[in-house]
């Protein structure tokens, strides 16, 4: 049996290992890929070499605190979404984090982390989709709009993957025969 496909990659920066491990276990149970960092220095090294869909960072950590790391990253043009977490934050901390660029501020302990993560990631995805979908006239029937989107989607993935049908089928979550039929219906050259 092959490994399940990750539905998102998350970096958790928290010096409280029990809290971090609990969040990691919960998220990995539903196929998120999770990387842990115990402090700002570890986090900086990891974030230089890997991209994440979401970073969840504690405010209070030994050495450099989360708020100053957030400020440092934002100043450097960092684009990965960051959620700050704290068990004892004051209102001014929440306001400061959001003003700096955090996408949310969560109170620890996080009792029900999955709905929070799903909501934050879906909001991020919608913002990205809104920016990238082009050429669709929203006044046409749904099927026409869907075909325009699917043409863009499949052409993008075919080009990115050197027209490897097996790879594109896996990315799209389709059987190869279904993908061939879809490409034919959309008038896309398989090459």
How does this model look, in words?
By secondary structure, the protein is of the alpha/beta class. The chain folds into two domains: 9-130, 3-Layer(aba) Sandwich (Rossmann fold); 133-186, Arc Repressor Mutant, subunit A (Orthogonal Bundle), CATH 1.10.10. It is 53% helix and 13% strand. The chain has helices at 17-29, 40-49, 66-75, 91-100, 113-132, 142-160, 165-172, 176-186; strands at 9-13, 33-37, 54-58, 82-86, 104-107. Strands 2-1-3-4-5 form a five-stranded parallel β-sheet, with helices on both faces. Strand 4 (82-86), helix 4 and strand 5 (104-107) form a beta-alpha-beta unit. The protein starts with 8 loop residues before the first strand and ends in a 5-residue tail after the last helix. The mean pLDDT is 84.
User: How many alpha or pi helices?
Assistant: 8
Look at the helices and sheets and give the structural class: alpha/beta
The shape, in one word, is elongated
CATH superfamily of the largest domain: Response regulator
Q: β content, as a range?
A: 5-15%
Arithmetic mean pLDDT: 84
Distance between the termini: 31 Å
Side-by-side strand order of the widest sheet: 2-1-3-4-5
Task: List descriptors.
191 residues; alpha/beta; Rossmann fold; Arc Repressor Mutant, subunit A; 5-stranded parallel β-sheet; 8 helices; elongated
Short summary of the structure?
This protein is α/β, with parallel strands linked by helices and 191 residues long. Helix content is 53%, strand content 13%.
């Amino acid at each position: 049996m092959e490994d399940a496909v990750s539905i998102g990659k998350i970096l958790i920066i928290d010096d409280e290992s029990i809290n971090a491990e609990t969040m990691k276990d919960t998220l990995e149970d539903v196929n998120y890929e999770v990387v842990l960092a115990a402090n700002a220095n570890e986090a900086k090294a990891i974030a230089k070499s890997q991209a994440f869909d979401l970073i969840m960072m504690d405010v209070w950590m030994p050495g450099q605190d989360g708020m100053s790391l957030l400020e440092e990253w934002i100043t450097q043009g960092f684009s990965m979404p960051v959620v700050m977490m704290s068990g004892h934050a004051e209102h001014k901390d929440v306001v400061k984090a959001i003003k700096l660029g955090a996408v949310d501020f969560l109170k620890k302990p996080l009792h029900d982390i999955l709905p929070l993560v799903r909501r934050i990631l879906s909001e991020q995805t919608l913002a990205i989709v809104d920016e990238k979908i082009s050429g669709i006239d929203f006044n046409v029937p749904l099927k026409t709009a869907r075909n325009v989107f699917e043409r863009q989607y499949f052409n993008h993935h075919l080009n990115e993957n050197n027209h490897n049908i097996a790879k594109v089928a896996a990315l799209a979550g389709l059987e190869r025969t279904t993908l061939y039929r879809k490409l034919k219906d959309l008038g896309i050259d398989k090459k």
